[in-house]
Structures are given as structure tokens and as C-alpha cells.
Specification:
- The structure is a single chain.
- The protein is built from 11 helices and 9 strands.
- The chain has 270 residues and is α/β, with parallel strands linked by helices.
- A 6-stranded mixed sheet has the order 1-2-3-4-6-9, sandwiched between helices. Strands 5-7-8 form a 3-stranded mixed sheet.
- The protein is globular, with a radius of gyration of 19 Å.
- This is Enoyl-CoA hydratase.
Length: 270
């Protein structure tokens, strides 16, 4: 049996790939266990500065395996819910990873595959990639946070259209909407994502974790709650040796070198 997630290093970037190409990287229970474990391992590794998530074989992820979903119809509602929570735990693992996670999307990101791509902190998409909230086509409703992520990116009217029609949207359109950070020519999304990740990986690890949390919370917090969180993290950052290096580098008119300041147990971004 193939490993559900392939892992390789490209400098300070950990590249994690869905590995089910025969089914366009459709999700399985093995993926639900393997991806959070791989993210946790990368989060603990001081040599890893950023993570890229992609798929092998020309597709990102086609979402849930319909054969398995059909079998779940025979389960009790609590048993069905447990399977969905496995997906949601994987989404939370992407969100809670202290290091930046960048999606590199070629081919299809459909259903829960779209949710996974949107759960990442940033996204590089091939111009001809296909993003779709495909659930309606098989009589299902979205999960994996698809509606939560899209609601912060597009109007309610467009969100409703995407969910009720399941119509695919190209990478070019997602870039125009501001959903994709980088637009790449077909076959180049991974290269673009790794370049983004390499740049981030050279930065201050703990400051990056704090910024990631601030950006995640900004759309949910009240102004007062966000001000409190900013004050907490700025207080921590001012006492961190990362800021000592950054400020010294600024006054010394030299590039900051944060590499020696990485730790085995980075700051928790929860």
C-alpha cells in the first residue's frame, strides 16, 4: 500500500504530498491520521521553517472517496459524525500548525480538497487549476470548513452560487478574487509555493507563529479582543531574542540571521 502522505525536504521547506493519484488524491482514513502527524513532526523540527502541501499525479485533492462515503450511509449518525470529525481534526491541524502552510494546487481541489487548500495560510495555484465546492453534485452539503473559509473571501451571493451549483472556478479566477496568493503556469504551482515557503522559512520562527495566529483571529475577534491579542504578542516579541537580532541587524545595516534562534519546541500558535 502506498504511503498516504509523501514527505521530502527542500532546504528549510517540508513538502507534504497527498499520494493517491489513481483516485486524484481522494481522502482516506489513513490521510486523516498521516497528515496531522506529519504537520506535528514538521512543527517540532527546528530545521523546518515552512511547509508546502500538494498532491502527486497532477491533482491536489478530489475530496472524499465516494466509495467510502457510500458505505457510511449504512452507519449510525454518531458513526457518520465521527468520520467527519476526523476530517475536521485534519483541518484544525493545518490551522494550528505553528509554521506557515502553503498549498500548491494543480488540477482539482474539489469538495474537502477545496477546504484543505483554503485552510492553508497561503495558496499558489496553477492558472488552469479547478476549485469546486462539489458536494451538491452528489446530494451532499459542504464540510471541512469550506463555507467558513469562503465566507471570509467572497460575497454571500457568490458563496451561495458556488455551493448551490458546484461550478468549478479556475486558478486564474481564484487569484483575481484574492484567494490565491500566487498564480503559476500549469505545472509550476509547486515551484512557486516552494519559493514562497523558502522566503518565509528564513524569517523569525516565533514571530511568524504569532503573526499567523493574529491573522487567523482577525476576522473572528472584536476589535478589543484583537487589540488584547496584539498587545500580548507584542509584549512577548519584544522580550524574544528574535527581536534583539532583528533590531541589531537593522541598526547594523545587515540582513537579520534568525537561523541560530530556532528551537526544538516552537511557540504554540493555538
Amino acid at each position: 500500500m502506498n504511503e498516504p502522505i509523501l514527505a521530502r525536504r527542500d532546504g528549510a521547506v517540508q513538502v507534504l504530498s497527498f499520494n493517491n493519484p489513481a483516485a486524484r488524491n481522494a481522502l482516506t482514513s489513513e490521510v486523516y491520521e498521516a497528515l496531522p502527524a506529519a504537520l506535528a513532526e514538521a512543527g517540532r523540527d527546528p530545521e523546518v521553517g515552512a511547509i508546502v502541501l500538494t498532491g502527486v499525479g497532477g491533482a491536489f485533492c478530489a475530496g472524499g472517496d465516494l466509495n467510502r462515503l457510500a458505505q457510511r450511509r449504512a452507519l449510525t449518525p454518531p458513526e457518520r459524525r465521527a468520520g467527519i470529525e476526523s476530517l475536521h481534526d485534519m483541518i484544525r491541524a493545518i490551522r494550528d500548525c505553528s509554521k506557515p502552510v502553503i498549498a500548491a494546487v494543480e488540477g482539482a481541489a474539489a469538495g474537502a480538497g477545496l477546504s484543505i487548500a483554503l485552510a492553508c495560510d497561503m495558496l499558489a495555484a496553477a492558472r488552469n487549476a479547478s476549485f469546486s465546492v462539489a458536494y451538491i453534485k452528489v446530494g451532499l452539503s459542504p464540510d471541512g470548513g469550506a463555507t467558513a473559509f469562503l465566507s471570509g473571501l467572497v460575497s454571500r451571493q457568490l458563496l451561495t452560487e458556488l455551493c448551490l451549483t458546484g461550478r468549478p472556478v479556475t486558478g486564474e479566477r481564484m487569484h483575481a478574487l484574492g484567494v490565491a496568493n500566487r498564480l503559476a503556469e500549469p505545472g509550476s504551482a509547486l515551484t512557486e509555493a516552494i519559493a514562497m515557503a523558502q522566503s518565509l522559512a528564513a524569517g523569525p520562527e516565533r514571530a511568524i507563529a504569532r503573526i499567523k495566529r493574529l491573522c487567523r483571529q482577525a476576522g473572528e475577534n472584536t476589535l478589543e479582543a484583537q487589540l488584547d491579542l496584539e498587545a500580548q504578542y507584542m509584549t512577548e516579541s519584544l522580550g524574544d531574542d528574535e527581536s534583539a537580532e532583528g533590531i541589531a541587524a537593522f541598526f547594523g545595516k545587515r540582513p537579520a540571521d534568525f537561523s541560530a534562534l530556532r528551537r526544538v519546541s516552537p511557540v504554540d500558535s493555538h
